[in-house]
Amino acid sequence: MVHAAGNDAANIDTAFNFPSATFVDGQRPSNWITIGASGDKKAGGLTASFSNYGKKEVDVFSPGVKIYSTTPGGNSYANLQGTSMAAPVVSGLAALIMSYYPDLTAVQVKEIIENSVSKPTAKVAVPGEDSEAMMSDISVYGGIVNAYKAVQLADEKSKSAPAKKSKSKSKKRSSILAFQIIKATLMVAFFVDQLRCYYQLRCHARFIVPIIHQQNSRR
To answer: Which residues form the domain of 169?
Structure first.
């Protein structure tokens, strides 16, 4: 579960933040990861000025400033910012890892993303404050997600893990089956669409052809 930390420039170790990673019984899901928004060092700093943070509650930071994205209202795009832009980057990274290493569990993928971050050696601006701190003081793992390092770590972990041939084969079969289902669905949709067009043309022909004959006979 990839959770956007929020855009209040608040320390969510102490400030209320919804949704919460804590269940009613006080336990926390092992596959939950909370994302803060990072920025451009040359354009505003490594931490986004709006991003929530927290040494206990925000796990990692991810690019969330000037992200070129789709916008509502048609075929349009714009540069957007927010932890809601940063979280999809992490979701995409998780999907990338799982597509190449399907035997890894969700918890393992989460740990790979967390343990492969790039950690700034200098202090960064604390969002909403006139102060600076190490990124390790405003997040659990003290860094920004790094896809290259994450894939490297995933490869190492996948090779060191015990072989699970049966599960791997079943997952491959599931993937092939899913692909075949999608392909069949698209083919059926295409056929239905073509059939619809055929009957529409046929109906038009039934209506238009007699009119043409009438006009020709009058001439």
So the answer is: 163-219
